[in-house]
Design brief:
The chain has about 210 residues and is an alpha+beta fold. It is built from six helices and six strands, in the order ββαβββααβααα. It has a six-stranded mixed sheet, with helices on both faces.
């Protein structure tokens, strides 16, 4: 069965953060590999695995076009992040995590442990402020947005997201620009490599 994440953060340029939110992870290694594969396939730079107790953070370092390019950059105690006890039901927990992400920019992080606070500020907040948090499953997305009455811009961003801290938006835009440059260099190097191989086949060197 194909891997289907629970929550996505998107911009007009694509997916900037993917989240798998589960009340329990029976096979962490398998779920981790599935997440990495999804990140590579969708060119998503940051991924999260979240349970009520733990959070694992992943980043694509763009060293290869395979899951080996994605590394785990942190594992954290998730309990300090919650303002209230998380639900124990699977779908309810997914909605709970989505709401937490939507409110993260307004939530004080000064009381978080230092490593957790720094990780959220470096990897998660820029994506939240610069994009739209949405459920990846259509039925949950419909349930979550029905009757909210939120106004949206032509790009699908909520007005609240558009009005958040400009410094975080700038960080998000710079990260997007960096990803584009890395992708361009990667495609350019592949093109040069194919051109060199083609030249060698057309004009073989004599022994």
């Amino acid at each position: 069965m194909a891997f289907e994440p629970d929550i996505l953060i998107t911009t007009p340029d694509g997916i900037t953060l993917v989240v798998e939110a589960k009340t329990a992870l029976r096979d962490l290694e398998r779920t981790e590999e599935d997440l990495k594969q999804y990140m590579i396939g969708m060119q998503c730079p940051v991924g999260l695995l979240i349970t009520p107790e733990r959070m694992w953070l992943y980043r694509d370092f763009y060293t290869a076009r395979s899951p080996v390019s994605v590394k785990r950059v942190g594992e954290f105690n998730a309990r300090p992040m919650w303002r209230q006890p998380p639900p124990s039901q699977g779908e309810a927990f997914e909605v709970f995590v989505q709401q937490w992400l939507e409110d993260l920019a307004k939530q004080p992080t000064g009381e978080f442990p230092e490593e957790l606070r720094d990780a959220l500020r470096e990897y998660v907040l820029p994506a939240v402020v610069g994009g739209e948090v949405r459920a990846a499953h259509p039925q949950l997305r419909l349930r979550k947005t029905r009757g909210t009455g939120r106004a949206r811009t032509p790009f699908g961003l909520t007005e609240r997201n558009m009005c958040r801290t400009s410094s975080w938006k700038l960080i998000g835009y710079l990260r997007t620009l960096r990803r584009r440059i890395i992708r361009f260099r990667r495609l350019r190097s592949c093109s040069i490599g194919r051109g060199a191989a083609s030249s060698q086949s057309i004009y073989p060197t004599s022994a």
